[in-house]
Amino acid sequence: MIHIRDAAPGDGDALAELHARSRAVYYGAGGHEVAAVPDQRYRESWRKMVADDRLTVLVAVPADDIAGVITLDANGVFPTNAPDEKRIRLVGIFVDPSHWSTGVGSALMTRFISITRQSNATGEVDVWQRNTRAIRFYTHHGWTQDGTSRPGPADAPYVGFVHRP
User: Fold this and answer.
1) Which one of 61, 120, 130, 149 counts the least CB within 10 Å of its CB?
2) Pairing label, strands 122-128, 87-95
3) pTM here?
4) Residue 60, exposed/middle/buried by CB under 10 A (0-12, 13-18, 19+)?
5) Going by C-beta distance under 8 Å and a sequence separation of 6 or more, which residues neighbour residue 153?
6) Where are the beta strands (DSSP E) in the chain?
7) Within the chain, which residues score under 70 in pLDDT?
8) Which of 32, 21, 46 is nearest to 128 (CA)?
9) pLDDT tens-digit series, residues 107-121
10) Which pLDDT belongs to residue 116?
11) Pairwise CA distance, residues 42 & 49, whole Å
């Protein structure tokens, strides 16, 4: 069973390490190398995210250790083409590579979708175009591309996805 809980103030370093490992693998698969070990500034940014009242940071704990994390911003984004539509931004979802394909990511995504439905909000996220594993994951969970993009590393953009209630 995978337990989902709010991140605790002491989780910041573990989350920085998990995130660094995860992103090193998916960026590496797309031809862009990044560090697999977080530096002090990276650790501090995760500590700040956990403490930030504007964000919700949830962790997945299948046993004793944190195996995944999802961060969301539910302050509401109002796009110009739909001013009455409430959006919840999925800032990031990361699973330790040793837990890929074990249900951790799906458990976190199920919680996110539940939050958006309870709020009658549309979920939004940007995914690096070369992260084909993530794109399959989002598509599998009912997300669709919305036609937006922004610059990303290695000349590959981040593409926008939405999940409608």
Assistant:
1) 120
2) parallel
3) 0.92
4) buried
5) 27, 32, 128
6) 3-6, 55-61, 68-73, 87-95, 122-128, 144-150, 158-163
7) 76-83
8) 32
9) 999 999 999 999 889
10) 93
11) 11
The pLDDT, as a whole number, for residue 162 is: 96
Percentage of residues in the chain with pLDDT exceeding 70? Answer: 95
Alpha-carbon distances of 76 from 16, 27, 87, 158, 164, rounded to whole Å: 26, 29, 5, 20, 14
> Which token pair is 115?
């939050």
Phi, psi of 26 (to 5 degrees): -75, -35
Structure tokens at 18: 């998990």
**Cα–Cα distance, 82 to 125 (Å, whole number):** 17
Instruction: For tokens 């989780």, name the residue.
Output: 11
